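Collaborator request, handled under Task 6.
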Amino acid sequence: MNDLIRLTARQAVDSLKKGDVSPAELIDAAEARIAAVDGKVNALPTRCFERARAAATRLEHPENPGPGYLYGLPMAIKDLVEVAGVRTTWGSRAFENHISIKSDYSVERLEGNGALIIAKANTPEFGAGAQTFNEVFGTTTNPWNTALTPGGSSGGSAVAVATGQVWLADGSDLGGSLRIPASFAGVVGLRPSPGRVATGPRALPFDTLSVNGPMGRTVGDVALLLDAQVGLDARDPLSLPAPSDSYVSVVDRQMALGRLPSRFAGGCRIAFSPDLGLCPVDAEVVAVCEAAMQRLAKLGASVDDKAPSFADAENCFQVLRAINFAASTWPRIKDKQELVKQEVIWNAKKGLDHTGTEIAEARRQQGLLYNRLANFFERHDFLALPSVVAPPFDHRTRYLEEVNGRKFDTYISWLVLTFAVTLTGTPAISLPVGFTKSGLPVGLQLVARPRGEAELLALSAVLEAELDLGTHNLVEPR
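Structure tokens returned to the collaborator:
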């Protein structure tokens, strides 16, 4: 069983495809691993092994499965995403006894592509706050140091992957909920372009701020899961067709070439910013990310500091997030406020109070930012920056209140380096690139042009191989 949990997702799927291992054996291996380690990290509080075993007995492999077919690989789904017949709480006491009748569109696609759902991953209430705790299931801790937080809101997903309880997990990302826990837990988390992964039904089906995406221990594993997630779904008005080339094939092709991807004859062009001019960033985090940029330069990248301006990004995001909460969350909680944490209520009420002038200005600022970034991508392949402003912090802290003497105004202000990128609708990945002196992982956030997931994964795979940090190995909670 130990050998099975140490396989990468791609290795596990290859073994399933060859018949060297069965889905039932992988479910057993995952169940044993969860029993052994989850008590220390609380990543997967809801398990549905029997549902997965029943699905495994019904699994019939098509003769010509498409890219991303998973052949009965067990995985976890975030507790913001509904799975038919399974408890879905959104981390809230207001819904702690809710059993989903239907699955989210994204889960339907995954199960149609041979995934077996064995557990739901812990999340903060309604995904708010980027620190994974709630009053239904308690706190998820960081396996690199269980006194610390793994971040959030896909904290349970990141920790389950890092500790080898599952080979893959999904997550969602509005302000950084895939990228922040990926950085803190030392795994890979990709925020795709809006519509790349069809989801729903949603209260706001035309919203581009919140997306679903993949988490894995390696870039190749993330590419595999993304292949299983993508595809057109008429029920999601933003959904995009699957690409003609699978993401796994793009990654493998780039690795065979042994060089960085670029649209320019002179080679790969990357701009690096330590802070986007928005907020102080912990010096150790910056140093680790700068060292990774030096390795990219060694691989032939032209690295400069000509990042576009992200001025007004925080105010813009705060307004748009608040009206999102007012429209999607407030109707669900307005009569249950005594059961909901105050940060969520504050955020929703803030949205209700915004004036038309404030909303119009936020939309205008978002448009200006996107146009500046589009201009930037006419001269560069990628933008690089730290994923988070600081290393993991005490899990008893509700949110990070300051960095380098800068006090944050709200409970989400410390997410600024990820939510600034969210506003642009561009794909972004957090890749482990090193460790602090105390041994905590640090993620580098890489951003590609709109709908540039393929080139983003290709770049990340080459850098991952160059760094060879061993972060794909299982973390034993300590």
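The cover message to the collaborator said: "The longest strand covers residues 428-435. The first helix runs from residue 2 to 5. Please let us know whether this matches your experimental observations."
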